């Protein structure tokens, strides 16, 4: 098999959709778009499906882009979601490299989507799985050669092409993407400096104890991390490429590559054109249906009711994760089949950085107490989060047993006694009650 | 080329050709086999590619690492003696393996 991510060949699966009507048009050939199509076929959905994306690649998985793919540990072929034969056999038409610019929607949920190519796509139902785009870093020099983001395969290919010519890399943003990529680039022999604007690492996703743990661990492994770092500008080498990054303190950090990972902005543009309710993403009900009562919206772009059992009513959340893309798409598939199913399972997340495997179960928002479990000699570290005495989440580093136990307890609506759990030698699953 | 024989929990068997070097999970997922999810793409984070390996094949495999062993305690269907995470089993040229998929992965 020699097919590349970049390969334009797709044989019969890529037949033109122009002019022909489709049953369901899915805009966004992403994790959630792919899962929606697959789940619908598994449920027996018989209408034709068109899965349309604006990238020139066959639908692929993103997680490895900042890790194994960047480090050449896996090839592009292993990122591909499904073989070409799968799409053909399941009557799913893939459209690549097309961006929908406007929509003509009817009151019954059908309509026509007009693409940048000049092609149009008629549909009876519409699903938006359009995801999010990287937040741009606003500073002088942000357009120099060597400044990259890391959201899609083209970004990763660009970074891979730049990497051999770089000895020093500055990563702007100490979140998951920044730290994963920083660890990968360090493993590739680069001298890496991470500049985090906020008061701690991964501030949006983990609690303070976990942030501190990652700071200490990464520092010990040789990453130069600047918490509360203020960047004045990215400096030109005189030929349009990056030479360094200057901080407001006056310090100049050499860099031939600057990687920016400062979060994403949900792609609400098409939702706005449809007149859908927008609020930190496109607002959907618990069945993944937008405010027009027809449009399905799934994944990173969707602002949905907090799906965790027992979460406060009216609490809303927008989740950026593979697990959510998959589970949310399943809910949406049922909705398209005319059934109403609840979100299954507990949200979970993972991030691999150097030899640290972080797994997060549940959502820690609103916690009022934590319990730390640590076995330093085994590289294991866990923080349990409680709200009103009830466990709601856990950050687990190299501790899959803790992760699995908390996920299990949350799914069953049970608790884990915080006092007993503070002994790291005690297996959490024996405490689920 | 290599071959994987997948038997589902109801006993139905499918044989899928695998590229040398691909994992059993990748082979299954790319061909749309139900019964194996592989949500995390093979990074040993999700335990949704659980399989039971045929006993005669099991002894031909490299022993599992500690992380996989721990993850197997968190699979949806309880682990057995011959449980493995199929993302960790890479196919060798000419190899033929037999696995059974559990009733559910989540």
CATH topology of the largest domain in chain A: FAD/NAD(P)-binding domain
User: Could you tell me the number of beta strands of chain B?
Assistant: 5
CATH architecture type of chain B: Roll
Please state the overall shape of chain B, judged from the principal axes of the Cα atoms: globular
Report the C-alpha radius of gyration of chain B, rounded: 12 Å
CATH class assignment of the largest domain in chain A? Alpha Beta
Tally of distinct domains of chain B: 1
Low-confidence stretches of chain A: 1-17
Please report the distance between the alpha carbons of the first and last residues of chain B.
Answer: 30 Å
Compute the average pLDDT of chain A.
Answer: 94
CATH level 4 superfamily of chain B: Beta-grasp domain
The CATH superfamily name of the largest domain in chain A is FAD/NAD(P)-binding domain
* Helix/strand structural class of chain B: alpha+beta
With strands numbered from the N-terminus, the spatial order across the biggest sheet of chain B is: 2-1-5-3-4
Number of domains of chain A: 3
Summarize the structure.
Chain A is an alpha/beta fold and 433 residues long. Chain A has helices spanning 31-42, 84-89, 153-162, 176-187, 208-220, 269-273, 322-336, 400-411, 418-421; strands spanning 21-27, 49-52, 92-95, 100-105, 111-115, 120-128, 132-134, 147-149, 168-172, 191-196, 224-227, 231-236, 242-247, 252-254, 257-260, 264-266, 282-283, 296-297, 302-305, 316-317, 348-353, 356-362, 369-375, 380-387, 390-397. In chain A, strand 24 and strand 25 (390-397) form a beta hairpin.
Which tags fit this structure?
heterodimer, A: 433 residues, alpha/beta, FAD/NAD(P)-binding domain, Enolase-like, domain 1, 3 domains, seven-stranded mixed β-sheet, five-stranded parallel β-sheet, 25 strands, disordered N terminus, B: 106 residues, alpha+beta, Ubiquitin-like (UB roll), five-stranded mixed β-sheet, 16% helix
């Amino acid at each position: 098999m020699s097919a590349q991510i970049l390969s334009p060949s797709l044989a019969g699966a890529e037949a033109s959709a122009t002019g022909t009507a489709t049953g369901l048009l899915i805009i966004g050939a992403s994790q959630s778009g792919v899962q929606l199509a697959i789940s619908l076929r598994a449920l027996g959905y018989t209408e034709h499906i068109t899965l349309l994306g604006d990238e020139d690649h066959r639908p692929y998985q993103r997680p490895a882009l900042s890790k194994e793919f960047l480090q050449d540990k896996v090839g592009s072929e292993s990122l591909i979601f499904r073989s070409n034969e799968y799409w053909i056999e399941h009557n799913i038409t893939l459209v690549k490299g097309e961006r929908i610019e406007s929509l003509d929607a009817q009151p019954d949920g059908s309509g026509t989507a007009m693409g940048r190519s000049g092609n149009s796509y008629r549909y009876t139902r519409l699903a938006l799985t359009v995801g999010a785009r990287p937040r741009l870093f606003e500073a002088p020099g942000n357009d120099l050669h060597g400044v990259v983001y890391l959201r899609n395969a083209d970004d990763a290919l660009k970074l891979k092409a730049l990497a051999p010519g770089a000895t020093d890399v500055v990563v702007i943003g100490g979140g998951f993407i920044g730290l994963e990529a920083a660890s990968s680039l360090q493993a590739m022999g680069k001298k890496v400096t991470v500049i985090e604007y906020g008061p701690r690492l991964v501030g949006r996703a983990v609690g303070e104890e976990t942030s501190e743990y990652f700071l200490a661990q990464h520092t010990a492994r040789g990453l130069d991390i600047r918490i509360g770092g203020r960047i004045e500008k990215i400096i030109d080498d005189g030929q349009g490429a990056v030479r360094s990054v200057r901080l407001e303190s006056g310090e100049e950090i050499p860099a031939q590559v600057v990687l920016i990972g400062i979060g994403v902005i949900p792609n609400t543009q098409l939702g706005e054109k449809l007149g859908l309710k927008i609020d930190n993403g496109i607002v959907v009900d618990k069945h993944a249906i937008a405010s027009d009562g027809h449009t399905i919206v799934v994944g990173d772009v969707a602002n949905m009711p907090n799906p965790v059992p027992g979460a406060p009513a009216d609490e809303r959340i927008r989740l950026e994760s593979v697990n959510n893309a998959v589970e949310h798409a399943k809910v949406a598939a049922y909705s398209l089949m005319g059934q109403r199913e609840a979100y299954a399972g507990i949200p979970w997340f993972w991030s691999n950085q150097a030899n640290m495997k972080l797994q997060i179960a549940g959502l820690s928002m609103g916690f009022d107490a934590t319990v730390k479990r640590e076995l330093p000699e085994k590289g294991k570290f866990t923080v349990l989060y409680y709200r009103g005495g009830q466990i709601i989440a856990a950050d687990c580093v190299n501790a899959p047993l803790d992760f699995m136990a908390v996920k299990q307890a949350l799914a069953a609506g049970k608790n884990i006694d915080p006092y007993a759990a503070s002994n790291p030698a005690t297996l959490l699953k024996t405490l689920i009650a | 080329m290599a071959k994987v024989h997948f038997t589902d929990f109801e006993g139905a068997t499918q044989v899928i050709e695998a590229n040398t070097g691909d994992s059993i999970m990748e082979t299954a997922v790319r061909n749309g086999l139900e019964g194996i999810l592989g949500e995390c793409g093979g990074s040993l984070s999700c335990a949704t590619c659980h399989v039971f390996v045929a006993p005669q094949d099991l002894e031909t495999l490299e022993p599992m690492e500690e992380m996989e062993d721990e993850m197997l305690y968190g699979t949806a269907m309880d682990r057995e003696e011959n449980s493995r995470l199929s993302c960790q089993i890479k196919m060798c040229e000419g190899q033929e393996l037999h696995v059974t998929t559990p009733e559910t992965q989540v």
